[in-house]
Amino acid sequence: MKYRIILASASKRRAKILKECGIKHKVVISGVYEQIDNKKSAKINVLFNAQAKAKKVASKYKGGFIIGADTIVLIGKRLLGKPKTKKEAKVFLKRFSGKTLFVYTGLCVIDAKRQVAVSAVEKSRIYVRKLSAKEINRFVKIAVSDDKAGGFSIEGPGTFIFDNIQGSFYNILGLPMARLNHLFKKLGVDLLEEAS
Are 74 and 104 a contacting pair, CB within 8 Å? Predict the structure, then answer.
């Protein structure tokens, strides 16, 4: 049985991941402002944002499954979302150079018909090799995006600077599919069976 699946996210990469996995879906941008509160843990931040996105979109539907997701990068004790400018992206990369980052993604799936929600958080670890100023400038020029937490992608040119991933690769991309499928199973749906 095919279910209506709605992605409450403006992320083109999340939509691409679902498509590549054969999951037919509709994108409905929530318009929710992503909050980052450094006084709270990464887990609490991403869960709050993911739940807010899913709830906002679910309020418009009487059926289907709504996916809310939010990704944050933790370096030391500082939480980072999306860089607002290329200049800020350079600051991020200088901070990342030679360091280990933790990437958190909060997920919330709502069964709009039954008004039931399930949530989870996925955590991955990634090392950034030591970068020169020249490398940072080049990377920002060709690979930085303002729609990704931390401003980076581990795909494409990102493969040159990011290394030693521990945990879900797809979590770092912004949509941990194994964890997402686990949440759907809690709601009685197997995403593998939905794939076409």
Answer: yes
C-alpha to C-alpha distances, 138 to 103, 149, 157, nearest whole angstrom = 23, 19, 10
* CA 52 – CA 106 distance, rounded (Å): 11
Catalytic amino acids? 70
Q: What is the C-alpha to C-alpha distance for residues 142 and 161, in angstroms, rounded to an integer? A: 13
Which is more confidently placed, 102 or 85?
Answer: 102
Per-domain boundaries in the chain = 5-194
SS3 51: helix
Architecture of domain 5-194: Alpha-Beta Complex (3.90)
pLDDT score at 1: 45
| pLDDT of the residue at 146 | 60
Mean pLDDT of all residues belonging to the chain: 90
Task: For the beta carbon of residue 16, count every other beta carbon within 10 angstroms.
Answer: 13
Terminal CA-CA length for the chain: 12
Distance, CA of 70 to CA of 72 (rounded, Å): 7
Q: How confident is the model at residue 147 (pLDDT cuts 50, 70, 90)?
A: low
